Amino acid sequence: MSTTIARVERWVLRAPIANPVANAFGAMTNRPAVFVRITASDGAWGWGEVFSNFPQVGAEHRGRLIESIFAPLVTGCADDPATVRTLLERRTRQMAIQCGEPGPFAQISGGIDQALWDMAARRAGVPLWKFLGGGKRVRVYASGIGPDDVVAIAEKKRGEGFRAFKLKVGFSPERDVANLSSMRAALGDAAIIMTDANQAWTPADASESIAALAPWHPHWVEEPLLADEPPDAWSALAARSDVPLAAGENLRGLLPFEQAIDAGYLRFVQPDVGKWGGISGLRDVAARAATRNVCVCPHWLAGGVGLAASMHAIAAFGSAVSYAEVDANPNPLREEVFPLAIDDGNVVLSDAPGHGAEPDLRRLQPYVVMAP
Ligand SMILES: [Mg+2]
Q1: How many domains does the chain have?
Q2: Helices 278-291, 254-263: crossing angle, 10 deg rounding
Q3: 226 Cα: distance to centroid of ligand 1 (angstroms)
Q4: Distance from residue 249's CA to the centre of ligand 1 (Å)
Q5: Exposure check for the chain: N or C terminus, fewer CB within 10 A?
Q6: Which of 142, 183, 196, 149 is nearest to 165 (CA)?
Q7: Is residue 315 a part of any domain in this protein?
Q8: Nearest C-alpha neighbor of 32 from the set 274, 340, 349
Q9: How far apart are the first and last CA of the chain?
Q10: 73 CA distance to ligand 1 centroid (A)?
Q11: Domain that holds residue 74
């Protein structure tokens, strides 16, 4: 019996936080999330999450787009991810271009794809990592550290079991070097420390900024340039840099990923399942990356549903050297929805059907700003 999509529901949530989460281009003063639940004609259901960190007012907009455009489009369709992906690419492209919003449209399609994979695995009664053909162990790193209190936060995260840590840079050369050098001194030579510039530098100043960090051996430097700088600028920087480059959270579409991978300037590629492609997109990027010896390390810095989808996807499509990103900052929309136990730098995913994130909407009620 073929099943179809019976219902698409979305919740927009905002959790207050004590301290803003800052990066090189802005700050989050609260933590938003857009959760999508898709229910099929046989009663099966699955959850996905749509990127909504920036702009801060944008989560409600994505909620309205889902309700007004996406839900009517997919309701009644066959509920397999490939069919829906093709349908959405065909039926939303013109509108996305017309309103100048390819980003939010791609983000929502990514969230829907996650929900459909979750649903398929739940229906089969197996965990998503297994459904996708992977193992259950995932290496993780603690992300979003800095620019303040970096040593205290890193040591706290080490106490929780993390063995790899990502520092935000791109603030000022002095601050970046002081933060990285103090983190390296506190964590020791064996610790893995990544750095993330969040597109802060220009082709003219990026090499110097990276060279200043290199003595403390960052595992990678992420988004040293704007994601849309020409490939030649990225290639020239990679050729001059002693630190491997990482990027991908701001690439949209398989072609840009394939071009970046094939050009050879990235050693780490970072698709975000809630910004483009969902689990299907991550799978396709990983397949291309494997042909060029590029390591896939998915980006994720939002709620627990997308974190679960991201971790199950990398468990299936990553390699032994992949890492999943786990936000180090407090966020009840992550911690209460997909709590993690970290053991010596690894997470062992559960055997629960699907990706295992089932938001308890009664408990999350104080954070709900938009419900079906
Ligand atoms: Mg980043």
Answers
A1: 2
A2: 20
A3: 11
A4: 7
A5: N
A6: 142
A7: yes
A8: 274
A9: 29
A10: 32
A11: 5-125
What's the CA-to-centroid distance between 257 and ligand 1, angstroms? 16
Q: Is the pTM of this model over 0.90?
A: yes
Does residue 333 sit within a domain?
yes
Q: How far is CA 208 from CA 212, 223, 279, in A?
A: 6, 15, 36
CA of 71 to the centre of ligand 1 (A): 30
Residue 200 lies in a domain: yes
The string of pLDDT tens digits covering residues 209-242 is: 999 999 999 999 999 999 999 999 999 999 999 9
CATH number for position 330: 3.20.20.120
Q: CA 300: distance to chain centroid?
A: 2
197 CA from centroid of ligand 1 (Å): 7
Phi, psi at residue 249, to the nearest 5°? -65, -25
Ligand 1 centroid to Cα of residue 132, in Å, is 26
Tell me the pLDDT tens digit for each residue of 76-129.
999 999 999 999 999 999 999 999 999 999 999 999 999 999 999 999 999 999
Give 128 Cα–ligand 1 centroid separation in angstroms.
Answer: 25
- What is the tally of helices (H) and strands (E) in the chain? 13, 13
In a domain, 358, yes or no: no
Choose one of 95, 125, 155: the last residue of a domain. Answer: 125
